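The instructor's notes for this session suggest beginning with a concrete chain rather than abstract definitions. Hand out the sequence below and ask the class to guess, before any prediction is shown, which regions might be ordered.
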Amino acid sequence: MAQIVFTGWRPGFKKVEFTRQLRTNFNLALHDSFETTSAVLEYKTVSLPVPDGGCAEELLSAALTLGATVFLG
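After discussion, reveal the predicted structure:
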Protein backbone atom coordinates (compact mmCIF):
# COMPACT_ATOMS: atom_id res chain seq x y z
CA MET A 1 0.00 0.00 0.00
CA ALA A 2 1.36 3.38 -1.03
CA GLN A 3 1.56 6.32 1.33
CA ILE A 4 1.53 10.00 0.66
CA VAL A 5 3.80 11.91 3.00
CA PHE A 6 3.14 15.60 3.62
CA THR A 7 6.13 17.53 5.00
CA GLY A 8 5.07 21.17 4.84
CA TRP A 9 3.85 23.87 2.51
CA ARG A 10 5.00 26.49 0.04
CA PRO A 11 3.91 30.13 -0.27
CA GLY A 12 0.42 30.29 -1.74
CA PHE A 13 -0.70 27.11 0.07
CA LYS A 14 -4.46 26.76 -0.32
CA LYS A 15 -5.37 25.37 3.08
CA VAL A 16 -9.16 25.36 2.64
CA GLU A 17 -8.94 23.44 -0.64
CA PHE A 18 -6.32 21.15 0.89
CA THR A 19 -8.65 20.36 3.81
CA ARG A 20 -11.45 19.60 1.33
CA GLN A 21 -9.14 17.32 -0.63
CA LEU A 22 -8.28 15.40 2.53
CA ARG A 23 -11.96 14.93 3.34
CA THR A 24 -12.86 13.83 -0.17
CA ASN A 25 -9.89 11.70 -1.18
CA PHE A 26 -8.84 10.20 2.14
CA ASN A 27 -12.31 9.93 3.72
CA LEU A 28 -11.20 11.87 6.80
CA ALA A 29 -13.64 13.47 9.18
CA LEU A 30 -13.70 17.26 9.24
CA HIS A 31 -11.84 17.37 12.57
CA ASP A 32 -9.12 15.01 11.28
CA SER A 33 -8.77 17.02 8.07
CA PHE A 34 -8.30 20.24 10.05
CA GLU A 35 -5.72 18.57 12.32
CA THR A 36 -3.81 17.24 9.31
CA THR A 37 -3.85 20.66 7.64
CA SER A 38 -2.65 22.27 10.89
CA ALA A 39 0.19 19.75 11.14
CA VAL A 40 1.24 20.51 7.56
CA LEU A 41 1.20 24.24 8.36
CA GLU A 42 3.54 23.52 11.30
CA TYR A 43 5.88 21.53 9.01
CA LYS A 44 5.13 18.26 10.81
CA THR A 45 5.41 15.10 8.74
CA VAL A 46 2.05 13.41 8.13
CA SER A 47 1.63 10.10 6.29
CA LEU A 48 -1.69 8.94 4.87
CA PRO A 49 -2.23 5.52 3.25
CA VAL A 50 -3.49 5.28 -0.31
CA PRO A 51 -4.96 1.90 -1.23
CA ASP A 52 -4.65 2.36 -5.00
CA GLY A 53 -1.23 3.12 -6.53
CA GLY A 54 -2.72 4.82 -9.61
CA CYS A 55 -4.79 7.06 -7.40
CA ALA A 56 -1.67 8.00 -5.43
CA GLU A 57 -0.13 9.82 -8.40
CA GLU A 58 -3.30 11.87 -8.92
CA LEU A 59 -3.49 12.77 -5.22
CA LEU A 60 0.18 13.69 -5.18
CA SER A 61 -0.29 15.98 -8.17
CA ALA A 62 -3.37 17.63 -6.64
CA ALA A 63 -1.57 18.25 -3.33
CA LEU A 64 1.41 19.78 -5.12
CA THR A 65 -0.93 22.06 -7.08
CA LEU A 66 -2.46 23.26 -3.79
CA GLY A 67 0.99 24.16 -2.42
CA ALA A 68 1.81 21.23 -0.15
CA THR A 69 5.29 19.73 -0.05
CA VAL A 70 4.62 16.06 -0.50
CA PHE A 71 6.12 12.80 -1.79
CA LEU A 72 5.17 9.15 -2.18
CA GLY A 73 6.49 6.97 0.62
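Then share the key points. The chain has one domain: 2-72. Strands lie at 2-9, 46-50, 68-72.
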